[in-house]
Amino acid sequence: MSDITQLAAALVLFFLLDRFLKSYPLRKWLGVLLVAIGAAGCVAASQIRLSGFDLGLLSIFAVALGMGLFLKRRRFEQMG
Q1: Which keywords does UniProt give here (predicted)?
Q2: pLDDT at res. 75
Q3: Cα 42–chain centre separation
Q4: For residue range 33-47, what is the model confidence (pLDDT) as tens digits?
Q5: Per-domain residue ranges for the chain?
Q6: At residue 68, what are phi and psi to the nearest 5 degrees?
Q7: Exposure of 61 by Cβ count < 10 A (0-12 exposed, 13-18 middle, 19+ buried)?
């Protein structure tokens, strides 16, 4: 699978999770989990391809997705 296709799939996944995942604890812990798994994957699986997916590239996307979820974890909380 090409890198562009993997990037498009990651962007669609990020958009869907960002829009429909509204629970504060779930956004927080999924963000932390994705950052940890992505960071470990960047080191351990940087040159490995599995079924056409570049695991190093997916690890980078996981870190970015996890940071986005964690930093915007209170997006759907009521103000006031």
Answers
A1: Membrane, Transmembrane, Transmembrane helix
A2: 85
A3: 13
A4: 999 999 999 898 878
A5: 3-71
A6: -65, -45
A7: buried
pLDDT at residue number 57:
87
Instruction: Tell me which residue has tokens 């498009």.
Output: 8
Query: Whole-prediction pTM value?
Result: 0.83
Look up residue 56 and give its amino acid.
G
Tokens of 10: 């990651």
Phi, psi of 75 (to 5 degrees): -60, -40
Q: What is d(CA 33, CA 62) in angstroms, rounded to the nearest whole number?
A: 9
pLDDT at 48 over 80: yes
Q: How confident is the model at residue 26 (pLDDT cuts 50, 70, 90)?
A: very high
49, containing H or E segment: strand 49-50
Residues composing the chain: 80
Alpha-helical (H) ranges within the chain are 3-20, 24-44, 55-71
